[in-house]
Design goal:
Elements (H helix, E strand, L loop, with lengths): L1 E5 L3 H12 L3 E5 L3 H8 L10 H11 L2 E3 L3 H7 L2 E4 L15 H10 L7 E5 L7 H12 L6 E5 L9 H6 L4 E4 L3 H10 L1 H5 L4 E4 L1 H32 L3 H9 L20 H14 L3 H4 L1 H23 L8 E5 L14 H11 L3 E5 L4 H7 L4 E2 L3 H5 L4 E4 L4 H4 L3 H5 L6 E4 L6 H6 L3 E3 L22 H4 L4
Parallel strand pairs: 1-2, 1-4, 2-3, 4-5, 5-6, 7-8, 9-10, 9-12, 10-11, 12-13, 13-14
Helix pairs in contact: 1-3, 10-12, 10-14, 14-15
The structure holds uridine-5'-diphosphate-glucuronic acid.
Amino acid sequence: MKITVIGTGYLGAVHAACMAELGHSVLGVDTRPDRIARLARGEAPFFEPGLSELLTRGIESGRLFFGGSLEDAAAFGDVHFISVGTPQLAGSLAADTRFVEAVVEGLAPHLRRASLVVGKSTVPVGTAARLATTLASLAPAGSAAELAWNPEFLREGHAVQDTLRPDRLVAGVMSTRADVMLRRVYAPIIEAGTPYISTDLGTAELAKVSANAFLATKISFINAMADLCDAAGADVVTLAEVLGYDSRIGHRGLAAGLGFGGGCLPKDLRALLARASELGVADSLRFLGEVDMINTRRREKVVELARQLAGGSLTSVNVAALGAAFKPETDDVRDSPALAVATALHAAGARVRVHDPRAGDNARDAAPQLEHAADVEKAVDDADIVLHLTEWRQYQQIDPLALVAVVRRPVLIDARNALPHRLWQEAGWTIQCMGTGPGLTVAAQDAAPGHGYDEEEMCGCW
Ligand code: UGA
């Protein structure tokens, strides 16, 4: 099929490359010329495992192109995916849908033949119905140009695999024709046994935000239990292990620590709350506000722990922040808990040096007031406190004995409960975790790799 992907961010670039991998002819379009130029050279404009290889393969096969305008897209494709951002509106909890609206308004006047416009962006329920009306009124093809909604559930860091082998496909459609076209787009994935659910537009829109709200609730639940464990002298890592063996609960998304961040979970949670309020059902979803607050308090808690370990004041305290990305395997620092902690410590008077294996450049752009180190040794040099904020695998392999000689005081806050604590303790470190009681508990000693979780789950990923 001839497909266009409009918006080539974390979602669109991966989607375009994966559609070409499935055998379609794909044109990726974006308003950012620098991004398009890089993609056209086969370069991933952000770190995403496996993406560069897929881009190169698609381009070399002659099926994947980048560049052009919405008019070019309309001429090229039969199916147009919209994958532009819907960030949180400034000064509001709601999502800003103006970029999605602009694409529909810009594309529709060029649609002169039968085509399907498929929204992938995460939008408040009701947006797609509104856009369907816009499309019908602006497209010269009239009702032959149709809208559908096909939310995307990919996780950064696992985006290629999640797109080519998703848990499920959801198609919000208004006609059998749209359903048939989407089934053709995803035919190889459906044939591989992936559940495909076709539904109305609103249910499809809600499928995405409610999945993210549920995942956020699960994380905040275990983080609330972490507070209880701290107060009771119990161990949340073991508690999560026990809970996760209940097959109705499961281990994934039960890693207590610094909480969730990124461009999706926090803003989707808030947008859902805002939309529920508009629809008059704020009471039913009020708990999501609490989920958000529990999450924000994790960041404050780490700052407070650092203050306590520094003896009550952070002024002129040397802090090494290991990690800036919102989670491992990405260079994305949007609403990153790690960077939020680092900047809060800096604002409280600490001298903060940040290291991240992949997100260094983005962290420097987002927080130029911090010092940015090229490697772990430089970050921890002369540190009074080392904070483990993003659970990159590389940090789990650090030799804690070697670092003792470099730091001023061997004090570690493992805000992700993911380091091999026994090793660090034997090397002479004082360790503070999240939800393991005051100081380190016995159960947490072997918490890092191999505590009843597979490695992926220990990395805080679903
Ligand atoms: C999330 C969803 O998982 C995807 O299904 C969805 O498609 C995507 O948002 C989106 O809306 O586009 P992502 O933001 O890439 O994906 O990240 P996750 O892997 O879900 O992690 C989110 C945050 O939760 C991270 O900060 C992570 O560190 C944290 N987390 C995760 C925990 O604190 N504990 C856990 O047990 C798991």
